[in-house]
Design goal:
The complex is a heterodimer of chains A (about 500) and B (about 525). With about 500 residues, chain A is an all-alpha fold. Chain A is built from 23 helices and 4 strands. The longest helix of chain A has 24 residues. Chain B is an alpha/beta fold. In chain B, helix 6 packs parallel to helix 7 and helix 6 runs parallel beside helix 11. Classes of the chains: A mainly alpha (about 500), B alpha/beta (about 525). Chains A and B meet through strand 4 of A and helix 7 and strand 15 of B.
Amino acid sequence: MSHPDIAGRQGFAAWLHRALGRASRYASPSLLAAAAVLAISAAALFVEPYIGMADNGDYFRILYSNGIYFNAPDYAGQYFGYFVKHYGIFQYYNENGATLSSSQSLFVRLALRLNVWFADARTFDIRFQAAIYLALYTAAVYLLVEALTWKAPAKRGYAIAGLSVFIFGDTAYTAYFNSFYSEALMLIMSTFVLASGLLIYRRRFNDYAMLAVFVAGSLLLVTSKQQNAPLGILIALFGIGVLLARKDRPYRLSATGGLAMLLLVSIASYALIPQEFVNINKYHAVTRGVLPDASDPEQSLESMGIDGQYALLSGTIYYEPYTTIDVNSDKMLTEFYGKFGFGKVLAYYAAHPDQAGRMLNLAAKDAFTTRPEAMGNYEKREGRAFGAQTQFFSLYSTLKKMLTPKTFGFIFLWTIIVLGLYTPSFVSAIRTKNPRQAVRLPLLLMMILLGLAGIAVSIVGAGDADLAKHEFMFTVVFDLVTFMTVSDAMLGRLWRNVPLRADSASAAATAA
Amino acid sequence: MRKRFGTLGAATMIVLAFMLACSPVSVRPVSAAAAPAPTGDTVLLLYDSLALSTEREGNVETLERLLAAYGVPVAALSFDRYAEGMLKSYRRVAVVRNAPDLSIANAALVSDLASYGGDYLQVGGRELPDRVRARLNLTLDAAPLDTVRLEAGDYGQTLSAVADLDEIAGASGDAKTYGTLTFESDGTRSPYAVSAGGYAYASYLSGGSLAELALAYVLKDWLRITGDFNAYVLIKEIYPFSDLELLKTLADRLYEAGVPFAASVKPVFYNTDYPAMQRYIQALQYLQARNGSILVDAPAVAATSTVGDGSLRGKMSGFIELLAASGIAPLGMGAGLFWTYDEVYVSQGMSFFDTVFLGPNADGQRVRRTGASATFAFSPYVMPFAQLQDFERRGVAPRTPLPLNLAFSFDLFPDAAALEDAVGAISRSWIPFADLKNGTHAVHTDRLTIESSGGGLVIDGQPLDIGKQERAVEEDYAYTAEARTSFTKLFGIQNQILMVIIGTSLAVFGLFLFIGYRRYKRKYIYPGGRHDAL
């Protein structure tokens, strides 16, 4: 290699260093990442052709009870195929009661109010909701990247920021903002929960403010969807790490109160699941979960207290157009749904680990799919094919879907590796009796368990029915945790603790 | 003051009743072909209100079912939806007035009815076309709220607190009267209905009461139907998930009591090779061997289904063929009335059958509504047996012929005690129940034909031996097929090799870790290490 070459490279490196140094004065990696995610998502959501998600038939549950209705004359013909951005606003008394209780309603109502104030009192434009979600998401991405890149060398910090944009700016995620699916809220709140937990760990901002974000994000996450109700218990349990971050009484009281509230809300949220949903899930838990793969379905049913003759329902779904028995009939209520709870399904899988393993492998096939294939992204007026999906800024989700090994063994290995990488710093923190430094591993474990619980709840709660959509929680968690692991690896912070704020620098000195 | 029917009227009724009573009771085998020949003329059924949340709720549907039992297609329409000139397309019009205090607001309907020249039937209301009123010479009074006793055929029933009843206070002498209404408060009597020529008027109709049967007598004459009719026992709600042993016991008890019966069984579309299905088939074979006739019940329709998915035809024919392959000959279908109005259900689910037992509507969804209902060659009117038990049998000795084919239905019983009660009640009813197999019924799929005639069953021209041995249930059925594997041995060896490689790697990794840790510790212990350099 010639000397001028070496000199040129060194010159470029020096220039890059200076440039990044200057840039960091105006825009930190976190600010840049947030701005880039905002810009890319805004281009997707608010610039033609608008990107959104088609209705799979679930929208009515959240729409009608919140005063919005389908006003497109050909709406029924657009199910699954096309994204619809305009809806009618009820002008008179709305007789539709809430079919489900979801924190999503808060955002729908806020968007509706803004729509009425600033645009139209008769037509709801879903982009008002997308704007709210995007603002929150930008803040969440900012906090997450800030938690990971604070006090990091500029070059690596910006690389991490770029990675975050690549992962979290993906339209497979952000298209949910232009939809009435609760997945949008799950994505935003999961990001807030991890980011706030990490920021408490790093003592970057005010602990009370971050605790508030942690608890509020968890509450909104848990109540966004019935399926998420059990997740609150996990957060309440593993969030104890966050509680122990400080020893002062006011903080611990605040954290205890927040986590207790989360536990109660989680239980209440589970108890409030409408019976119809419970029955739909029970039906699928048995007919799409326990029965199809059982070596003796009749025996399986009898072990759960159900007549073995119901083995004939194996493989069927609740929404079959023509069935032997009305799935809502009294006979089904007393002889089928009334005979078991989800505890029995869980016990069944515990007693049949081979079958549970096969179900987990089946679940793993969809665990890395961010965007369900069934739903289109474009409006009908764009003239695209029915169900066409956008390719705009979706390389990450495409690669992830193509390249990840789709077995539960991979998920297991990923879990072990991630936890293994972070264990030394945790052990070190325990040894040195530094509870704040010990926050990171329980937080990570909590996130992973949220994802795994998402899979488990899907299988126990509804068998293999609609797995691709039910596993969204795992998809998000996988990306968050992998992003965090890669970032920490880039910064060399995997098995050692990271610099904290000056007043706790002594704790950092205890790092391994 | 209400007009009383005098001695002459009473005498006329006694003579009529005697004549009816002396008519021979049908014991002849009925056949789909010999059943009341459908007129082919659609009846336009107009109604002012569906009387929701009143005692008359469902009476429009009752009239639709009665007409369907006579093989008459029905086009049902509310007054509001009537458009000028529609009456011209129909030779028969039936009008139901459930809100007699309201005049007809649709001027086109008023005008068209005034000039309408076809057959006309009205149930309730005092507002009639002049020509009809004149022909029947009808005088109608609004009766006060009262308890009323209705008598029709061999039965009587006391109806409490009947509101908005329009009493026939007088009618033309040559008009035929039907049944009797007796008002409890003052003992006055009036006919339930009158008819003359193509005109008829009935005072009242409520579903689930004797008025159904009373109106059937009127309809039989109004539609000019002739023929003999029979009663059948129909067992419904038979699922593969039912207590199949109890079902067999029921078959035994009815067989012992000499009561032939029809069993409307739920179809199964999936997992039909499972032992559970074999048990179901076995039970149905047993029913058939005990003089039971098998009907295929309509499948449950998902409330969320808004369009047919095109699978119904294949599913239904598949189930019929499965039964036939098991030596079971379904002779017809059981369905709710709404099926006959639905284009998809009719064309894909009912077109196999010429015999359909039409029951009241359950919760169902019409996929696509056609103009008029579909009709079938043989379509008995389904009435719950419990409803018959609410009727009091009158003391008149001979049996009055039934006005239509009637199927008295039971839902399969929850336990043996209920079963015994029902079989006892059937025996005590003294109704001569007919055997469906004695009639001519046919079921056609693309692959086979099932027929019955004179008590025999034939599948594709081959007589069926209903006493054939049941097929044994395959209790060791293999639910999950063993996955096909190839190169098992090779992959087994490969697995072992990989396990050795991974195990060795782990051991070497552990060794390196140990050595590294020792060296790391050593640098703090021995001088000259990096620690000193710092």
